[in-house]
Structure formats: structure tokens, C-alpha cells
Amino acid sequence: MTTDIRGRDFLRLADFEISEINDILDLAAEMKREQRHWSLKGRTIIMLFFNSSLRTRTSFEIGAAQLQAHPVVLSVGQDAWNLEWHEGVKMDGDSPEHIKDAARTLSRYGDALAVRSFPKLKSYDEDRTDPILTSFAKYASLPLVNLESAVEHPCQGLADLMTLREIFNQNTRRKKVVLTWAPHVKPLPLAVPHSFLLAAAMGGCDVTVAHPPKFELAPEVMEQAQQIAAKSGGTVKVSHNQDEAFKGAEVIYAKSWLSREFYGKPVEEFAYRNTLPSWTVSESKMGQTNRAKFMHCLPIRRNVVATDGVLDDDDCVIYQQAENRLHAQKALLVKLLGESSS
Ligand code: CP
Questions:
Q1: Which of 114, 159, 168, 238: disulfide with 325, CB 3.0–4.6 Å?
Q2: DSSP percent split of the chain into helix, strand, coil, nearest 5
Q3: Is the bond preceding 96 in cis, omega lying within 30 degrees of 0?
């Protein structure tokens, strides 16, 4: 029996039971096989982007259209006003509208609201509260979907778990999965690695998070992942040795993320990074694994995060992951809104 999640917000994976996530992915798999047509006819999905996107925007917009819903996409600062989120402030700065008013207004127009808002990367104490998403959740009165916030990218996590299920013919339990830190030219947010870790833990995988010292993920997310793994039959551990972690791995998920120790201090962070050995995923490193599949959320900087040889190999599943965004999000929308009757 499937559980009913109609009307709920989809902000973080850990807000949902493993069974609820599995229900969404079972439906996503049915949709991918095109077993029948699902309809959200007459519904309006409003998407607000504070940041750039290729996959999230196109997969959500096309997914909504395929379900016969009406997608409305707004880029904040271009199509829509810049939005203030601080409470009780005198709004004499750059933002002419408050999220309180925008969220209440959009709630009268649409059936679901989806928001992308990256962290500002200045203050970890502020970013970890996910202020923009939290403000929308407080004031919107329709289901809110996180299209990547400071803390999580749960739609990516859904697609990633769907991809793991496909790789392992649905049996992801105890599969050896490595989430490896990788280099990048900028300090990047923690959202994608957080959501992948939680998703793989929900799948019951044996997850190793491999990263150099000082690149720990948020302790509260590590704690959530441990609790989820205890329920799913998986395990979560950390390694500071990429070569050791890769031995016998069946999936390598590469992603760069920033160091919370140097939050808001990129010059200091890169001075530290320059002392590290190479963490770029190469063909020779992949050769140490158990013929691992290579995963990444995209966009990816080729020959920085991973080499062309890794990315163009048959064992690379990055486009399968990207496609699964479409199916997983369509299933999510149908679960959150309920199908239209005709
Ligand atoms: N993976 C992902 O979210 O891609 P975009 O940033 O292009 O949406």
C-alpha cells in the first residue's frame, strides 16, 4: 500500500520515510516505462529561480507540460522582483518585495510552488538555516518543492536514488557506494552531497564519504544519514584516503564542495587546497574500483572534477541521472498534488 503525501512540502529528503521515497520512485519507474498517461491537467506549477539552472528548469518545465499542467517559470531579479526575506526590516535596499507578500500572492495563483535558492556562502550560521526556502515555507499555503537550497537538493537525490536502483536492478542494499570530494575552481555548496548521502543511505547502500580533512559534511546531515542507514540496513563511514575508498567500489559519485572551516574565505580555502594531492577522478583511479559506475549531478568541469576518459566511458551514467530528474520529478508532482480526475 502506498502512503499519501498529497499537500506536503518537499524540502529535505529526511522529512520523508524511506517507504514514501520508494513510493515516489516506484511511480517514477512506471512513468519512465510509459505504462500509462498520468494527468495534472488544469494545475499550475510556479517555479522561482534565484540562480541559474539547465537541468532543473528544463526537466521541471517539460515534466509539468508532459503531465498537462501549466508551468510558470520566473527568474528572480529578471522576470520577478528581487525579494527580501529578513523579517521586520525597513525595506530601503535593493529588494522591492518581501517573500511574505510574494509567497502569499503566488499561493492564490498556483497549485504548487518550486524554489531554487543557493546559499550566499558568506555566513554558515545563516546559510544553514536555509533562510529563503524557510521563508517561502512559512508564508506559502501550497506545496513547496525545493529545487536546490543551501542545505539540500532533494530532487537530485530522488533522481540519484532512482539511478542507483536501475544500476543494481532495484537491489541497492549493501552495495559499495563512494561519495568522493573532487576539486573545483570555486567553493561549491553542500546541498548535492548532502542529498546524495541521504538518498544512498535510504537505499541501504554501504556509503563511504571520501574527502580531505577539513571537508566534513554538516554533522546534522551525517547524523541523519546514520539514522536512516540504521533503518535501511546500510552503513555510512568517512575516509580521508581516496585510493583506499575506491578499492572494490561499485559506484563512484564525484562532487566538489566547500570547506566549512573556511566558509566565506575562499582565498584561505584555496591556499589549503593547494597543499592537497590530486582528488580529480581519473581512469587509473576508476581502475581500482569494482568496475564502478561513475555518477555526477552535472554541470561538471571536465578534467577538473573528472577526466574526459572517465566521463566519456560506458560506465559513466551522468546522462541517465539527468534523464531521471524528469521521471522522478513528474512522479513527485503527481504524489504531492494527486492526479486530475479527467
Ligand atoms: N543538477 C542540477 O541541478 O543541474 P542544474 O543546476 O543545471 O539545474
A1: 159
A2: 40, 15, 45
A3: no
**C-alpha of residue 232 to centroid of ligand 1, in Å:** 28
- 322 CA: nearest ligand 1 atom: 1
Q: How far apart are CA 162 and CA 199, in angstroms?
A: 9
pLDDT tens readout for residues 137-148: 999 999 999 999
Instruction: Look up the pTM and report it.
Output: 0.97
Query: Is 53's C-beta closer than 6 angstroms to any atom of ligand 1?
Result: yes
Q: Is residue 270 part of a domain?
A: yes
Other CB atoms within 10 Å distance of the CB of residue 188: 18
Q: Is residue 220 part of a domain?
A: yes
State whether 54 and 67 are in the same domain: yes
Q: Is 58 in the pocket of ligand 1 (CB under 6 A)?
A: no
Classify residue 168: in a domain, yes or no. Answer: yes
Which CATH number characterizes residue 45's domain? Answer: 3.40.50.1370
Q: Which helix H or strand E contains 266, and what residues bound it?
A: helix 266-273
Task: Determine the structural domain holding residue 179 and report its residue range.
Answer: 156-321
